[in-house]
Amino acid sequence: QVQLVESGGGWVQAGDSLRLSCAASSSTFTPDGMGWLRQAPGKEREFVAHINWRWGTTAYADSVKGRFTISRDNANNTLYLQMQSLKPDDTAVYYCAARIRPTATGGTTPDEYAYWGQGTQVTVPS
Fold this sequence. Notes:
This protein has strands spanning about 5, 10, 20-25, 35-40, 45-50, 60, 70-75, 80-85, 90-100, 115, 120-125.
């Protein structure tokens, strides 16, 4: 069992930047991929970004493409999400999650993930 712990959320103005981090508790944990997903009040959890842990290939939701960058530090088992040009629509609880085996949809749906962090709040007031 592995625990994922997010940090870096906060309250920022529209147009600002923020970086989220997610640390895995196990140094030997090797997921197939990891992702960031978010859930806004009254909405379903949605995909934000995914990275293949071995190859580093990435995928993004259209709503964040060009503004957010997902990256990972394999040596320290840490996942990052650099967010720029934040908008009020980005307000949500952001979760990091780990996918332990390859899937057909490449980490773009919540159901593919086996492990989840507790979430970190990002607020961008309008």
